[in-house]
Amino acid sequence: QAKQNGRNTYAFYTQALTNNARLQMSLQADLHRAIKLHQLQVFYQPQIDMHSGRVIALEALVRWQHPQRGLIPPAEFLPVAQHVGLLIPIDEYVLQQACLQMRQWLDAGYPLTCVAVNMSGSTLERGDVVSNVKKALAGANLPAAHLELELTESEIMQQDDRCIDTLDALRGMGVRLSIDDFGTGYSSLLRLKRLPVDTLKIDRGFINDLPGSANDSAISRAIIALGQSLQMSIVAEGIETQAQHDLLREMKCDVGQGYLYSKPQDVTTITAYLLDHFSAELK
Ligand code: C2E
Ligand code: MG
Ligand code: MG
Ligand code: MG
Q1: Pocket lining: 258 vs ligand 1, CB cutoff 6 Å
Q2: Is 256 close to ligand 1, i.e. is its CB under 6 Å away?
Q3: Which residue's CA is the nearest one to ligand 1's atom 27?
Q4: What is the number of the ligand closest to the CA of 263?
């Protein structure tokens, strides 16, 4: 009997593994086509000035509109993309699209400071990243100051010191730089001090349990103080409730991003949101 069960369990797990492997393989094959067929879509989520309540920037977040599987989130296909060497072209595509879109919003008169684009460690390591960013900006006729590049803390800390030269070059062009998911990596404060960054984004993990968690309040307050003393602007991600907003605002956090204000939306929806948001001042 036990042997029988054991065999069934084994059969169950092999089946599950096979299914997962099959899914990965089919996603890999589809992903090659996805870029060509324009199935990748860039969604945008607003960033709000916590003091005035105005939208000041937007973050570009990629999704995959799969013909059979529907909308696939980045956490599910970016690892696959990385595995098959497609992460760099995807970053490049999102960067191009985001620059073109930002140009349109500025042309429409929306008073936005910048569009934030996520950049993977692999893209940062590439020798041609600086010229690619220049190309994307030139292609959209977008001044560099309207672009912010987000690098996660853990990826930035994995890089050797050569990446600081790349970051210096990008910053030298006028591009803004931001450290994403701050607090989840293992930053040395010495290294942080040397990084030419403009913005720290407090990871959603510290925001989630506010205002109830005394520990997370203390950590958020400390990150805000650290950023301020390094002359960086602070963005809190994942704000979902008014109580979180109120507390972070009281802590003098500059900018908020999260479902409380808006989920990431497709271009049409977010453009309608911006039109409505800015309608009073555009008249
Ligand atoms: P991220 O850059 O930290 O982006 C924030 C994530 O938090 C987004 O998930 C966003 O939808 C989600 N989020 C925002 N507000 C809330 C909230 O109030 N509550 C909750 N629960 N979640 C919230 P998303 O869009 O699924 O993206 C996940 C990650 O995928 C991003 O994390 C980023 O690291 C990566 N990613 C997305 N687009 C790109 C891209 O074009 N290139 C690269 N390299 N990575 C990307
Ligand atoms: Mg980000
Ligand atoms: Mg983040
Ligand atoms: Mg994140």
Answers
A1: yes
A2: no
A3: 74
A4: 1
Per-residue pLDDT reduced to its tens digit, 244-263: 999 999 999 999 999 999 99
Q: Tell which atom from ligand 1 comes closest to the C-alpha of 94.
A: 41
Cβ–ligand 1 contact at 73 (below 6 Å): yes
d(CA 54, CA 75): 29
In tens, the pLDDT along 120-177 reads 999 999 889 999 999 999 999 999 999 999 999 888 888 777 888 999 999 999 999 9
pTM (global) more than 0.95: no
Nearest ligand for residue 63 CA: 1
Report the atom number in ligand 1 closest to the C-alpha of 117.
41
Give yes or no for a contact between 164 and 131, defined as CB atoms under 8 angstroms apart.
no
Backbone phi, then psi, for 62, in 5-degree steps?
Answer: -80, 145
